[in-house]
């Protein structure tokens, strides 16, 4: 299963979408845009999961595709 994460930058100015929590795949200005992109990547690469993280990298939500 592919694991995508949506996490804020250190300054919470931008949002990163990462695959397997390694190097960022994409960077977005808005959290909603990052979530939408991660969900699209997850749908295109099923089975997948998207984890949405807060600034402390705690999991706020998980979505399965």
TrEMBL record:
Pfam families: DUF2188. InterPro entries: DUF2188. This is DUF2188 domain-containing protein. It comes from Lentibacillus halophilus.
């Amino acid at each position: 299963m592919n694991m995508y994460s949506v996490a804020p930058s250190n300054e919470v100015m931008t949002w990163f979408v990462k695959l397997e929590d390694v190097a960022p795949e994409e960077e977005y200005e808005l959290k909603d845009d990052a979530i939408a992109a991660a969900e699209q990547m997850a749908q295109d690469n099923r089975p997948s999961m998207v984890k949405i993280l807060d600034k402390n990298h705690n999991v706020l939500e998980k979505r399965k595709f």
